[in-house]
Design goal:
This protein has ten helices and eight strands. The chain is α/β, with parallel strands linked by helices. The protein binds cytidine-5'-monophosphate. The site of cytidine-5'-monophosphate has 14 residues, from strand 8 and helix 9.
């Protein structure tokens, strides 16, 4: 299960990101590099994480015309990242172009449905007439039928999305906390065991691991909870 833990490197310092990678490699599968860190560390940081023997999830959430997104995906794939993200709301042609650009590379496209910072009122204000739960499922369908390899969704949505998209699509879930653990700014959290039981394939975990007094031990506890969730999948 440890290969299915993605540690979010939420820092603006490439050096502290690399220190976290060195300390946690061997205990987790991947490291997520987002917009803040990538703009500081660039492709060189991605290369150094990979040289440390770890896979990279490059989370830049592309959203542009199909031709531009296809080029962005090719550039991400050239860095050898395992996952990269696009916004599913970019539409079918954009999603298909992203999936096509990734084909035959070692990079899998993950589609982001509705950001968890948006509620029904926010969606209405940008012209969506459906509520967030319905939009998530519609975008998950669109992503699936456009050939992308995975979907990022909140743990609260993972069961509904899984029921819609079948087993071959990777579901990647943030907002995970151990029972009783400080949720920080996350409002809708699920335990690692439940997230996996409900159908998540990969968990994105930031502070519960990176800010733990013993990050390696925290990662091991997550892996063990995920194994428990997998054993209960399809059960209760
Ligand atoms: O520290 P924490 O475990 O809350 O970090 C979760 C990571 O997942 C952060 O990088 C955050 O940006 C990301 N994320 C999230 N919720 C989403 C999408 C991404 O928390 N819906």
């Amino acid at each position: 299960m440890k290969e299915r833990i993605i540690v979010a490197l939420d820092t603006d310092s490439p050096e502290s990101a690399l220190a976290a990678v060195r300390s946690l490699s061997g205990e987790v599968g991947l490291f997520k590099v987002g917009m803040e860190l990538f703009q500081r560390g660039g492709p060189d940081l991605v290369r150094r994480i990979r040289e440390a023997g770890c896979d990279v999830f490059l989370d830049l959430k592309f959203h542009d015309i199909p031709n531009t997104v296809a080029g962005a995906v090719r550039s991400a794939a050239a860095m050898g990242v395992r996952f990269t993200t696009v916004h599913a709301s970019g539409g079918k042609a954009m999603l298909a172009a992203a999936a096509e650009a990734a084909r035959g590379t070692g990079t899998t496209i993950l589609a982001v449905t509705v950001l968890t910072s948006l509620d029904d009122g926010d969606l209405a204000s940008v012209g969506f007439s459906l509520g967030a739960a319905e939009v998530v499922l519609r975008l998950a369908d669109l992503a699936f039928t456009s050939g992308v390899g995975g979907i990022v969704c909140s743990a609260k949505e993972v069961a509904a999305v899984r029921a819609r998209v079948g087993k071959e699509v990777a579901l990647v879930t943030p907002g995970v906390r151990m029972a009783g653990e400080d949720a920080g700014d996350q409002k809708r959290v699920v335990t690692p065991a439940d997230a996996v039981r409900l159908g998540a394939d990969f968990l994105v975990v930031g502070r519960p691991i990176t800010r733990a007094s013993d990050p390696r031990e925290a990662a091991r506890a997550f892996a063990s909870a995920m194994r428990e969730g997998l054993a209960r999948r399809g059960g209760d």
